[in-house]
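re: ur question from earlier - yeah i can do the single chain one, its not a big deal. heres the input i used so u can compare w yours
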Amino acid sequence: MAQITALIGRVLQFLLLAERGMNEIPAQTPSSSLIVRPDQPLIGVLHQEDGQEVMRYFTEEESADATLGSTTPTDALRLAGAWSDLDWEEMEKGLDRIRYESPPSAPLEG
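and the output i got, formated as tokens:
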């Protein structure tokens, strides 16, 4: 019963803050909670943290871009290196063969 009373007290506190237009979040708010205005975007970015994949949420594109910018080049370079063991000339011949053996597609109408 004490837990329910405490929860009701917290809900009433949030409602009172919202009614007064206050954007402050009380110190007891759990870290798994996120409060944003309805007109704010909510941008989720997958991130590795302590060996676990987590979703980090941002309300500003600049912050999300900064997080993506720090990992994207590394990922792209790793992806490019995934084909480093392939023989380029052999792969090029294979692509040309596929290109010439495939029938042309119909022209687009527009």
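The chain has a mean pLDDT of 74. not sure if urs matches, ping me
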